[in-house]
Amino acid sequence: MKLQLLNRTSPEHVSFTVSDTIYNSSIGIWHYHAEFEVIAFLSNSGTRFVGDSIGKWVSGDVFLLGKNLPHMWLEDESTKTLEPQEEERSETVAVHFLKEFMGPEFFEKPELRPIDQLMKLAMRGIRFPQVPEHVLKKIKAMVHNDPLHRLLGLLEALQELSKLKELEVLSSPGYVNPSHTNRDSRLRKINEFVFANFKNDISAQDVAQHIGMNASAFSRYFTRIHKKTFTSFLNEIRIGYACKQLQEAEINISAIAYGSGFNNLSNFNKQFKNITGTAPSKYAKLYTDNHISYRIGQK
Length: 299
Prior knowledge:
Elements: E1 4-5, E2 17-19, H1 23-26, E3 31-32, E4 36-41, E5 46-50, E6 53-57, E7 62-65, E8 71-75, E9 92-97, H2 113-121, E10 126-128, H3 133-141, H4 147-163, E11 168-169, H5 185-197, H6 204-211, H7 215-226, H8 230-248, H9 253-259, H10 265-276, H11 280-289
Parallel strand pairs: 1-3
Antiparallel strand pairs: 2-9, 4-7, 4-9, 5-6, 5-8, 7-10, 10-11
Keywords: DNA-binding, Transcription, Transcription regulation
Protein name: HTH araC/xylS-type domain-containing protein
InterPro entries: Homeodomain-like_sf, HTH_AraC, HTH_AraC-typ_CS, RmlC_Cupin_sf
């Protein structure tokens, strides 16, 4: 099954959609859409595929996904309801909205800066584990709220999510288009250089030279901004690219390792396991078994 573009366009009389039944038909489809997505799992569990990340979800988890981020939800058989009754249809609540639905600069207002920062992070997908009950109630209430309170409920839910300290960023940096990165000119130059050259044998010193910094100053700057070393960041980029290759084509793992910038298979396997939590062969099998095919650059 190829990556599918799903139409989440809101009806003319509303600016965004809220549903507790939408995933009856699309929960098992590898897809993407232009809208941001807030999805709360209230009484079910399963496996989630977001970008190049695979993991579990359980009841009480909430996810925030950025636009055009490929994803799929596979519900566990033990919690799946084949023919849900009316009172059982609130197991999952999904909200879809364009970032510009309140105007192109709405979320850039000072009062909404925490939400704006959260939405930038959501371009890689965010999981909020075991969200407090009062936040889940706000999300669930949107299903039956009148239009005004539904709008206020969305803003309040995003605000509450932005306050949560416990969250997990899902996709690796290698899954993010460099045009989505920070607007700072120095960071932009760094990201552009790394994304253009990560398949080659590059080092922190090469990047430092490219942006006109000495190596030690660059290392301190990079670690302060990214909260990780340049080597760790570069490995994440390479593994993210390798994940795409494993998803999209029948290429042997050795070729993918060298094509992603690693100079030996042993280091590739070690870094892949450290970053994704699974071996390359097992990762590829997970996607093959679920009939997922993601084409790089497909819009």
